[in-house]
Specification:
Elements: E1 3-6, H1 7-10, H2 14-21, E2 24-25, H3 44-61, H4 68-83, E3 90-102, E4 107-119, E5 122-129, H5 140-148, E6 157-162, E7 166-172, E8 179-182, E9 186-187, H6 194-207
Parallel strand pairs: 1-4, 2-8, 5-6
Antiparallel strand pairs: 3-4, 4-5, 6-7, 7-8, 7-9
Helix pairs in contact: 2-5, 3-4, 4-6
């Protein structure tokens, strides 16, 4: 019987995740075009809403660091709604359990995704939210494990990592040559102009 290991405890760093999951980091800009231009246009109403979200984040953050639940409520959930991921053809599943067998089947990773967006059983986006005191990049090994657990292996999967302050996008292609790539980090707390770009990328991924 395979040993069950929590995803959060399975990998100490990114190098271990790459080795155990048989992943390769692709740095070619052409590999992950979804986060780059051209991106969908936004309406004036979209931009007004994003301005409100930015001010709201600053207001609550002024009282101190935000916990994971607050990050979901103030950043991840509103962005998913504006991107259209709460409406057909998408479906949202919160705190979804996943399992992934690695190596020769002797280990099984088990974890819970904060939010999973599905489109016709295709994993479009995995949300991994962390409290603001934790680096967004520190969630990368965990998010890669979740994306690697996608049972629908014919198309790429996408992830969004956020700690409330920053947002990072992730793309993983299916086997046999599993490759992943990252966007640049977007600073939502300090740069109001980053919010529209993050929403545009979400919509671009949704249209992919």
């Amino acid at each position: 019987m395979a040993n069950l290991i929590a995803v959060t405890e399975a990998f100490k760093n990114l190098a271990e995740a790459e080795s155990h999951l048989n992943l390769r980091h692709n740095t070619d800009p052409a590999f992950f075009p979804e986060w780059r231009d051209p991106l969908p246009d936004l309406s004036a109403a979209d931009r007004d809403r994003l301005t409100l979200l930015h001010h709201r984040l600053q207001y609550h953050h002024a009282q101190g660091d935000l916990l994971e639940g607050a990050v979901m409520l103030l950043v991840a959930s509103p962005l998913l709604e504006l991107a259209g991921f709460y409406d057909p053809p998408f479906r949202l599943q919160a705190e979804t359990s996943v399992e992934l067998s690695i190596s020769d089947g002797e280990e099984t990773l088990r974890g819970r995704i904060d939010a999973l967006v599905l489109r016709q059983d295709l994993w479009v986006l995995v949300i991994e939210a962390k409290k603001t005191t934790i680096s967004t990049r520190s969630a990368l090994p965990q998010a890669l494990a979740y994306l690697a657990a996608n049972p629908h292996l014919d198309r790429p999967s996408f992830g969004l990592l956020t700690n409330g302050d920053d947002v990072l996008f992730l793309k993983l292609t299916p086997p046999p040559d599993r490759q992943y790539s990252l966007s640049r980090a977007f600073s939502l707390y300090t740069v109001a102009e980053e919010w529209p770009t993050v929403l545009q990328i979400l919509r671009a991924i949704g249209q992919n």
